[in-house]
Amino acid sequence: MIIAEQKPMETIEEFIKDYKKVLFLGCAGCVTVCLAGGEKETDLLATSLRMKRELEGNPLETVTYTATRQCDPEYVDGIANYVEDVDCVVSLACGVGVQFVAEKYRNKIVFPALNTKFAGGTVEHGVWEERCGLCGDCILHKTGGICPIIRCSKSILNGPCGGSQDGVCEISKDVPCAWHLIVEHMKELGRLDMLMEVQPPKDWSTSRDGGPRKVVREDVKIDE
Amino acid sequence: MSKSKIERLFDQGEFVVSCEIGPPKSTDAEVIREYARMLKNHVDAANLTDCQTAIVRISSIASAWHCLEEGLEPIIQMTCRDRNRIAMQSDLLGAYSMGIRNILCLSGDHQKFGNHPTAKNVHDLDSMQLVNMVKRMKDEEEFCCGEKFKNHAPKDFFVGAVANPFADPFEWRVARLEKKIAAGARFIQTQCIFDTDRFVKFMDMVKERGLHKKCKIMAGVTPIKALGAAKYMKNNVAGITVPDELITRLEAANKAGGKDAVREEGIQICIEQIKMFKEIEGVAGVHIMAIAWEELVPRLVEESGLYPRPALKE
Question: Per the database record, which ranges form the Methylene-tetrahydrofolate reductase C-terminal-like domain (chain A) (predicted)?
């Protein structure tokens, strides 16, 4: 899933300081799972800011709603009556959701309440880790199911580099060396031979190569 | 243009000596030229580092040109951190056109350690792929994309890479060296060796696989300047191991004669190591990394019995 975290409260407060009525728009997708922008966080954020503004003598009227997914037009279309009525929108979705909302409601400014971080998963309650570089050309079968593109700090395809010691990456003692993990795992599988092949330069054209990517499934498209 | 001097010296069977010059963090090329004049009779070639530890300095290629002008053979380092394959090949063509023949391919220190930790790194290629790209440019006369050179391919590049016997997983280090040789590395410079036992073990594994016959392995040495530096390297530098015996020797020197005695002991240890490596089968040369202590190199070379340097035969 997409992992995000909330921007500092002061930043969001600054965004909306000149607005009187604000829609706080949560998302029930990934950001709910990573506890950054679900219904609970949305209500908490709106309430906190409302109380703060009240104390400052600059009352804020808040509207809260949590869309099923802000990255889906079907659900973004459904919030028209909430958006219509406010001065601006604070979206607690990932960067995709913010863009979908801003694109649909062009007469309202949309502020992002979150910083969208990466594609990752929950490793323990309250801890999320990046696991995929979204490069568009998966090679996990060659590397024991461990992604060197994103988990190696130098994206080495023929690792490990000289900075790996005691299984730890040179950039931090808290970062495991992805290639150490790969070598150990391939050893367990009895397939170290697979790592001896020199991996050629990667085709980055499927990754961020200067333009937005698109996936089209002709079979599920609905012709107008 | 001819082949590189160190390639020819290796072919002659000489024990090759190289050292490292760190380019300045300014436009002052005179720093490099002075080192070049000082070192050219004592070493066969010098590495010009490529923004080492991710700190902006005069580029390795520009620095190499200053060395060439002063009559010192350069080895340009090229890291994968800062350029994509287009920029790398372009720089390689430029370097070759200036007479630079030796290239050492490495991934590069992470930008986190340098003076621009917020920079975006590139890593389009890894060091293995860079080695292979240069090999293809020289041997197959083609660019990374497969397009052939119409003329003037960089046929005489001498391609080097690094190996670190002190990083983990240890056993895999030799396998990775084998891969680098398969990718096209013709000479290897190792990380600074302090743990000689582990290096000997590494070389045994290298010889078991016959890798020393497929490429020239140069043992990396660094003279220790201060007790604090040794301790720092032991505890804080990834990929470098400093054995306790070495710390004990430096501590004894410190007790006996303070800082100066430590420096002298560091020099003696380095000389002992060079002499030892010269006798290890499969070690074809020594690479002296006297970090910010370049002026020591002539003494190290002389006192380890490696001076004068051999001449090229016709």
Answer: 111-205
